[in-house]
């Protein structure tokens, strides 16, 4: 089935025209055939009646040769094939084909017309006396049988022995070739076919012109207009001026286009108004955000100050107490010999607490400054080995065994070497302090697909409680006992990793241990976020 209204219209109209023209040509040819056969039958009837009439006197006078001569003269006409005369017994008494004396079968075609019912008919109409059959070379022939009736002049003549009870003396069989009729029918069929084909072509041409002019072109314009509207061009006019259904459709389309254009303008105005309001509201939110950030900074600063004061206050309180004790011991101008041991003990506590204050201040400065790292290629495995050699004595004091699982094919890492060392120190010492004894496993591996170097530090401690996971990177947050930590270690690690454009994750299982996973880009900060 073709696509498109115009093609379907042409196809359907062409099929209808072919069917109508075919039926008309078939009916016309059949009517012409019947008319020509009727005329041929009338000609045969006329010839038969003429022969019977012209030979009537010769037959009354028993002049058969003269009658047969008359029949031969008639049979010489180009429209006559042959003439035969049969008597009542079916014997051929005369024939232009030279078969006189032959007795034909009464059931033969020429005789069966009147003898089909068993009793010969006396009066037979002309159509019943007509037959069409084929002879040699597949040529069609029209045959007409004309009875010769026994008239009173024949039955009373002295030379005839035909009683009055005999109604039919014989028949005259005239055959005429239908070659001329068949030729005319072929010419008529060919002429009808050519006329039908010409009519179909003419109608087909005009249907195509009509379909393209009044159907296809307007429809294509409507389709183009819909595509244009789909692209947002609503001001392009539709150039269709027709006074039919397609014109009404075009007018409806124009109305829809106008309504859609108006709706689009309203929507555009609404969007502009909405964007303006959103921008105003966004500006207000930004201002409110700035205020909240400022408030949060002030709150954080206050919390930081309180935390620092709390952290430093404890060792300072110890220094003050021990200093007062030392003042009492030296109240007499010198330390009594028996209290020299106590004096040295108090002095040692002062030194320790002072060093603790210094360590808190140092870690706080590292956390607060967070200076930009200096990037250079470093071997992370070598940094880990060098760092462990520095802190190994502290691990041995806590009966913690370090285990190394280093990837020897690790590529050079662009980073700040000292800050990487600080990451390793903080993570390893945190892991060691999380358990009384056990092992700390340090792994390195290369994620070649992502272009990252991964450092993992795992311990076999008690793990981190779920409620503490969200705060482990907050400054001064610590789960250690009072005086055992500043709570700045993981905060410093987090800041260093972010400065290197890296990422830190934690995996922990209560009672089994904790693993910190540090992911760093091989190319440093220029490699993009991980």
Task: Characterise the protein shown here.
- This protein is of the alpha+beta class and 530 residues long.
- Among the domains are: 5-184, Beta-Lactamase, CATH 3.30.450.20; 373-527, 2-Layer Sandwich (Heat Shock Protein 90), CATH 3.30.565.10.
- Helix content is 55%, strand content 15%.
- The protein has helices at residues 5-54, 56-60, 64-75, 109-115, 152-155, 179-230, 245-329, 340-369, 380-397, 417-433, 489-499, and strands spanning 82-87, 92-95, 130-134, 140-149, 168-177, 376-378, 400-405, 413-415, 438-447, 452-459, 503-509, 513-521.
- The protein is rod-shaped.
- It starts with a helix and ends in a 9-residue tail after the last strand.
What's the quick description here?
With 530 residues, this protein is α+β, with helices and mostly antiparallel strands. It is built from 11 helices and 12 strands.
């Amino acid at each position: 089935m073709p696509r498109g209204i115009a093609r379907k219209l042409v196809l359907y109209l062409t099929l209808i025209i072919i069917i109508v023209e075919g039926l008309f040509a078939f009916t016309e040819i059949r009517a012409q055939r019947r008319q020509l056969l009727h005329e041929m039958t009338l000609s045969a009837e006329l010839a038969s009646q003429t022969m019977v009439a012209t030979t009537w006197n010769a037959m009354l006078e028993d002049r058969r040769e003269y009658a047969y001569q008359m029949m031969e003269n008639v049979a010489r006409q180009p429209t006559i094939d042959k003439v035969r005369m049969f008597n009542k017994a079916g014997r051929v008494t005369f024939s232009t084909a030279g078969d006189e004396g032959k007795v034909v079968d009464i059931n033969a075609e020429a005789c069966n017309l009147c003898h089909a019912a068993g009793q010969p008919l006396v009066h037979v109409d002309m159509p019943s006396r007509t037959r069409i059959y084929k002879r040699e070379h597949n040529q069609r022939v029209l045959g007409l049988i004309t009875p010769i009736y026994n008239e009173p002049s024949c039955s009373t003549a002295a030379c005839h022995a035909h009683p009055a009870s005999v109604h039919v003396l014989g028949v005259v069989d005239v055959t005429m070739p239908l070659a001329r009729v068949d030729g005319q029918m072929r010419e008529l069929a060919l002429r009808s076919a050519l006329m039908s084909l010409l009519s179909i072509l003419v109608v087909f041409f005009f249907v195509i012109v009509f379909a393209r002019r009044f159907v296809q072109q307007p429809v294509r314009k409507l389709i183009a207009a819909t595509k244009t509207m789909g692209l947002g061009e609503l001001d392009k006019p539709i150039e269709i001026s027709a006074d039919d259904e397609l014109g009404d459709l075009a007018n409806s389309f124009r109305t829809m286009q106008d309504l859609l254009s108006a709706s689009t303008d309203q929507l555009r105005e609404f969007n502009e108004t909405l964007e303006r309001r959103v921008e105003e509201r966004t500006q207000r939110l930004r201002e409110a955000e700035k205020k909240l950030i400022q408030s949060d900074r002030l709150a954080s600063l206050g919390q930081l100050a309180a935390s620092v004061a709390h952290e430093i206050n404890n060792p300072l309180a110890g220094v003050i107490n021990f200093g007062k004790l030392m003042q009492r011991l030296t109240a007499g101008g010198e330390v009594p010999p028996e209290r020299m041991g106590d004096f040295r003990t108090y002095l040692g506590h002062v030194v320790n607490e002072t060093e603790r204050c210094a360590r808190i201040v140092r870690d706080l400065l590292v956390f607060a400054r967070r200076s930009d790292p200096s990037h250079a290629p470093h071997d992370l495995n070598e940094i880990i080995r060098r760092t462990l050699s520095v802190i190994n004595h502290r691990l041995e004091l806590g009966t913690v065994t370090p285990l190394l699982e280093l990837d020897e094919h690790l590529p050079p890492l662009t980073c700040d070497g000292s800050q990487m060392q600080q990451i390793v120190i903080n993570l390893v010492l945190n892991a060691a302090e999380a358990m009384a004894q056990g092992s700390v496993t340090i792994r390195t591996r290369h994620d070649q697909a992502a272009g990252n170097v991964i450092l993992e530090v795992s311990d076999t401690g008690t793990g981190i409680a779920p409620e503490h996971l969200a705060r482990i990177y907050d400054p001064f947050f610590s789960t250690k006992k009072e005086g055992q930590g500043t709570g700045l270690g993981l905060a410093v690690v987090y800041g260093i990793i972010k400065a290197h454009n890296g990422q830190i994750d934690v995996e922990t299982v209560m009672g089994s241990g904790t693993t910190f996973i540090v992911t760093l880009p091989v190319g440093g900060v220029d490699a993009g976020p991980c």
